[in-house]
Design goal:
alpha/beta; globular; Glutaredoxin
């Protein structure tokens, strides 16, 4: 009697497994998991950014030579790094420079004006949530500067306050 019960259970398990596999294979496209839209293959992070005017963009979709500067407006090291960038802004003319922070839009606007970068066409100040920053680049020390090629490939990263000469070498 035990052999019969065991055999019936084994057959039921096999039939259930076959049914599951067949039903999964024949699932309609609506039932299948949604496909993730494939963007261009590059190293730019999947990071949602909000510009000072409220427009949203994704760092991964940025085109051309790009520099991401992660900073905090009240950070002394970030302030010195920003001042060095401003003093050498001509060296950055071929790049779009995105300053990224979780600070509020008013704080970012004030910082852009204070450090005389608000009028620079190729310099953008953007807000990102702390969670989005952490998920995109991890926990990083600020300032952090990431230099990307025109194809979006990472050329060099600088974590922490870095002499401007070292950054300029990779532009």
């Amino acid at each position: 009697m035990k052999k019969i019960i065991f055999s019936v259970l084994a057959v039921l398990v096999v039939v259930a497994a076959i049914f599951y596999l067949v039903s999964k294979k024949n699932a309609s496209p609506e039932q299948a998991a949604p496909a993730v839209a494939a963007g261009p293959s590059n190293d730019l992070p999947w990071l949602s950014l909000t510009q000072l005017d409220g427009t949203r963009l994704t760092a991964h979709s940025l085109e051309g030579k790009t520099i991401l500067v992660f900073f905090q407006p009240d950070c002394d090291h970030c302030q010195r790094e920003t001042k060095q960038i401003r003093e050498h802004i001509d060296a950055f003319k071929d790049y779009n420079v995105y300053f990224v922070s979780d600070a509020t839009i008013p704080q970012l606007s004030k910082f852009a004006v204070e450090y005389e970068l608000a009028a620079s066409n190729n310099v953008h100040f953007t807000h990102a949530t702390p969670d989005d920053i952490y998920n995109a680049v991890g926990g990083i020390q600020v300032p952090a500067v990431f230099v990307f090629s025109d194809k979006g490939h990472l050329i060099k990263s600088f974590i922490g306050e870095t002499p401007i000469e070292q950054i300029l070498h990779y532009l």
